[in-house]
């Protein structure tokens, strides 16, 4: 592991009109680390991550990548530093196949005649790269030419994860990746997260399902009404303790508010 955290978010504040969505949210993550981000409904989890992906601009606070301060004015800037987010609704195109979804908006082209404006989709190369990618992540699908709408929720989640890491992501943020899944499929998604970690990719997983968080996360960060109130190594805490932090039965820990570590 390198010395610097891959990402640090320090004392982020963000208001939407009268709603103070974030008021001192902090988090750090090391390369290849899996962090669970938990908190009650409306605690600010999604908003916090949208600050990191450049969807929202913070009112105050700092973002650092590899120890250097950055600003993300739009999602493109965040993505170009290797940050990818999978949203609650997945944002897949259901009527397209796996290959098309993995390369959606970033299609590979070829220009067989080397003439200007005569590029065509390089279907073979995209198919080959998709198969390679799924193998790397140990994701099984019957065919990469299957339409995504014909796949189970868990397989769709797997495609969304594959799509997110297809372009050298260093950090993948997953917002409730297991909420809509059958039990058997949950295990598969958690396996993929473990494979990402083994590949050195960092993962932030937002979930209300604490058993999933305890299953995959190295560390757990609790947001309460927009503030980071606790950070725990998974091995050094219990579900009881985390639940107490979530529901607000425990006073914030001053040391964790500033650093998120
Ligand atoms: N675009 C927006 N405009 C106005 N208010 C917003 C916006 N996005 C979020 N909020 C408000 O900010 C607060 C935090 O919302 P957020 O979606 O980040 O919570 P969350 O922790 O992700 O909740 P959940 O677990 O229900 O997904 C809420 O009060 C929400 O209504
Ligand atoms: Mg949310």
Please tell me about this protein's structure.
- The protein has 261 residues and is α/β, with parallel strands linked by helices.
- It has a domain at 7-91 and 169-259: 3-Layer(aba) Sandwich (Rossmann fold), CATH 3.40.50.
- 32% of the residues lie in helices and 25% in strands.
- The protein contains nine helices and twelve strands.
- The strands form three sheets. The protein has a six-stranded mixed sheet with strand order 6-9-10-3-11-12, sandwiched between helices. Strands 2-1-4-5 form a four-stranded antiparallel sheet.
Structure characteristics:
9 helices, single chain, alpha/beta, binds magnesium ion, Rossmann fold, 261 residues, globular, binds adenosine-5'-triphosphate
List the helices and strands and how they pair.
Elements: E1 7-16, E2 19-29, E3 34-38, H1 45-52, E4 60-65, E5 68-70, H2 75-80, E6 83-86, H3 98-102, E7 109-110, E8 120-121, H4 123-136, H5 153-165, E9 171-175, H6 183-198, E10 202-206, H7 210-216, E11 219-224, E12 227-233, H8 239-247, H9 254-259
Parallel strand pairs: 3-10, 3-11, 6-9, 9-10
Antiparallel strand pairs: 1-2, 1-4, 4-5, 7-8, 11-12
Helix pairs in contact: 5-6
Low-confidence parts lasting 5 or more residues at pLDDT below 50?
A: none
Please count the helical segments.
9
The structure class reads alpha/beta
Q: Give a quick account of the main beta sheet: strands, pairing sense, barrel closure.
A: 6 strands, mixed
**SSE run:** EEEHEEHEHEEHHEHEHEEHH
CATH fold node name of the domain at 7-91 and 169-259: Rossmann fold
**Shape, per Cα inertia axes:** globular
Q: Measure the end-to-end span.
A: 16 Å
CATH-defined architecture of the domain at 7-91 and 169-259: 3-Layer(aba) Sandwich
Ligands in the structure?
Answer: adenosine-5'-triphosphate, magnesium ion
User: Helix proportion of residues, in percent?
Assistant: 25-40%
Provide the β-strand percentage band: 25-35%
CATH homologous superfamily grouping of the domain at 7-91 and 169-259: P-loop containing nucleotide triphosphate hydrolases
Indicate the radius of gyration in whole angstroms.
19 Å
Name the CATH class of the domain at 7-91 and 169-259: Alpha Beta
């Amino acid at each position: 592991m390198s010395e610097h955290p891959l990402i640090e978010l320090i004392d982020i504040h963000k208001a939407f009109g009268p709603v103070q969505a974030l008021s001192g949210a902090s988090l750090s993550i090391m390369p290849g680390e899996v962090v669970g981000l938990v908190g009650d409904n409306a605690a600010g989890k999604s908003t916090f991550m949208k600050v990191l992906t450049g969807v929202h601009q913070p009112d105050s606070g700092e973002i650092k990548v590899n120890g250097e301060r950055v600003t993300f004015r739009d999602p493109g800037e965040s993505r170009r530093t290797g940050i990818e987010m999978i949203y609650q609704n997945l944002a897949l195109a259901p009527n397209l196949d796996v290959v098309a979804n993995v390369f959606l908006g970033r299609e590979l082209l070829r220009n067989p005649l080397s003439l200007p404006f005569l590029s065509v989709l390089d279907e073979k190369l995209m198919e080959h790269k998709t198969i390679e990618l799924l193998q790397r992540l140990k994701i099984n699908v019957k065919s990469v030419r299957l339409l995504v709408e014909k796949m189970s929720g868990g397989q769709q989640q797997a495609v969304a994860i594959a799509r997110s890491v297809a372009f050298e992501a260093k950090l993948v943020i997953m917002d409730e990746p297991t909420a809509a899944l059958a039990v058997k499929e949950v295990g598969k998604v958690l396996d993929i997260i473990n494979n990402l970690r083994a590949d050195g990719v960092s993962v932030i997983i937002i979930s209300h399902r604490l058993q999933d968080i305890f299953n995959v996360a190295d560390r757990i960060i609790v947001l309460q009404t927009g503030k980071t109130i606790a950070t725990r190594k998974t091995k050094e805490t219990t579900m009881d303790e985390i639940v107490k932090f979530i529901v607000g039965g425990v006073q914030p820990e001053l040391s964790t508010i500033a650093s998120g570590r």
